[in-house]
Task: inverse folding
């Protein structure tokens, strides 16, 4: 048990470093940024507690903001993702996700994990880019950008999950 | 109270979400110059639009008043036409030559851009100045009556001392008789003024109209000053003191005319020479 907690923390730190040092500097076609750090919020255990999850989201996002020097954009978006996670889980699970035990590709099954994380990623990205643009007149561009970046992020998240959980 | 507490506990997720989002938003707006400028610009624009909408609505509601004011002003202007011409006032039997009949008074339209009425020393600022021919000492009249005297002039603006100022002076006379006296402001109500030195034999009635007199070189003759609301006889001097209700509403000034008396220098010179002897 202790070992798994340690693993979890190391995993989170690794993800944050990967996001902050490598992926933030990736700009596909000039402006498509993948954000995979939010997989932490998606995969924390279902019995974690919503309020704790929101605080984790806030501080996780804030760490990314420090890397990107972006005020609190990511903190806001990640807090939002943590806030809507129970509703997202209700899409694919009947008991708030408790029946899976843990939330990842192998426990949830590919299709359910795909639906769950796709919605999470797209909502997170829309929130993030809306806040970044800060103009409600440019919402169509924001949606377009969220869709493309979201697809990019989701691909990377799935690849990461495949790498980590395929063996079991 | 308990219900409120229960409501808070029931929605604690949402409340904590809101609090965290507020923290984020304040951090973003404080640290990101782009977001700060967006917020600032939006607030400013909203403010400007609100003000513009408000003033257009206000203008609409004032339309009836302004129409009435314009009609009255037109009427008085028509009356002014004849008697503002020097030479005509002498009657038709006088010799009329080109140099003897000309416009004695020129009216320069101006708009009030700043004014006060509830202070002890009130001032008015007009959007016309030296470039438009305004000089210190010229009179200012409005659609309803006299307003004041120009005391300071810059290139584009001029400052006016209204009658409702300790230095405000005008010479008034009765519309129906030729008794005259100085009009000044007693310093209280901005709608009232007093007029002194009216002799005992003058016929006075409440509601009599007081107009400007030819003796004043500042205003053209016949411009309304106000109406008598009260009068009392000073037993020691034997003169009446009148209370006037001013016809100009200093709390609602808009378009005014600055009066240039083209014969003023000549008259001033003559009077000064005559008094020296």
Result:
């Amino acid at each position: 048990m202790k070992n798994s907690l340690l693993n979890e923390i190391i995993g989170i730190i690794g993800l944050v470093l990967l996001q902050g040092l490598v992926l933030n500097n990736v700009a596909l076609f000039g402006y498509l940024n993948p954000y995979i750090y939010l997989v932490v919020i998606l995969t924390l255990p279902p019995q974690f507690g919503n309020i704790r999850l929101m605080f984790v989201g806030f501080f996780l996002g804030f760490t990314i903001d420090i890397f990107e020097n972006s005020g609190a954009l990511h903190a806001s978006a990640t807090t939002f993702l943590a806030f809507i996670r129970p509703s997202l889980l209700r899409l694919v699970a009947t008991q708030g996700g408790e029946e899976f035990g843990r939330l990842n590709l192998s426990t949830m099954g590919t299709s359910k994990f795909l639906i769950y994380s796709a919605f999470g990623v797209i909502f997170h990205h829309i929130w993030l880019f809306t806040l970044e643009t800060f103009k409600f007149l440019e919402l169509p561009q924001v949606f377009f950008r969220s869709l493309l970046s979201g697809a990019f992020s989701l691909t990377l998240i799935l690849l990461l999950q495949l790498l980590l959980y395929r063996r079991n | 109270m308990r219900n409120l507490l229960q409501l808070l506990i029931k929605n604690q997720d949402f409340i904590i979400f809101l609090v965290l989002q507020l923290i984020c938003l304040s951090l973003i707006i404080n640290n990101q110059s782009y977001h700060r400028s967006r917020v600032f610009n939006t607030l400013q624009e909203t403010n400007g639009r609100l003000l513009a909408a408000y003033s257009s609505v206000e203008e609409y509601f004032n339309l009836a008043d302004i129409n009435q004011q314009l009609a009255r002003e037109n009427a008085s202007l028509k009356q002014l036409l004849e008697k503002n011409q020097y030479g005509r006032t002498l009657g038709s039997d006088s010799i009329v030559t080109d140099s003897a009949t000309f416009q004695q008074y020129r009216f320069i339209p101006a708009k009030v851009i700043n004014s006060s009425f509830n202070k002890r020393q009130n001032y008015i600022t007009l959007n016309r100045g030296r470039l438009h021919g305004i000089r210190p000492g010229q009179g200012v009249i409005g659609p309803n009556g006299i307003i004041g005297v120009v005391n300071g002039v810059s290139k584009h603006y001029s400052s006016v001392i209204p009658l409702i100022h300790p230095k405000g002076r005008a010479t008034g006379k009765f519309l129906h008789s030729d008794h005259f006296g100085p009009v000044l402001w007693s310093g209280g109500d901005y709608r009232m003024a007093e007029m002194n030195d009216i002799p005992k034999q003058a016929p006075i009635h409440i509601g009599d109209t007081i107009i400007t007199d030819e003796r004043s070189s500042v205003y053209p003759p016949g411009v309304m000053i106000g109406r008598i609301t009260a009068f009392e006889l000073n037993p020691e001097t034997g003169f009446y003191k009148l209370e006037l209700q001013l016809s100009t509403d200093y709390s609602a000034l808009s378009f005014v005319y600055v009066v240039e008396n083209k014969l003023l220098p000549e008259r001033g010179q003559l009077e000064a020479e005559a008094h020296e002897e």
In short: Chain A has a mean pLDDT of 85. The interface with chain B takes residues 50-51, 54-55, 58, 70-73, 75-76, 79-80, 83, 131, 134-135 of chain A (CB under 8 Å). The radius of gyration of chain A is 15 Å. Helices of chain A lie at 2-22, 39-43, 50-68, 73-92, 105-108, 110-133, 139-165.
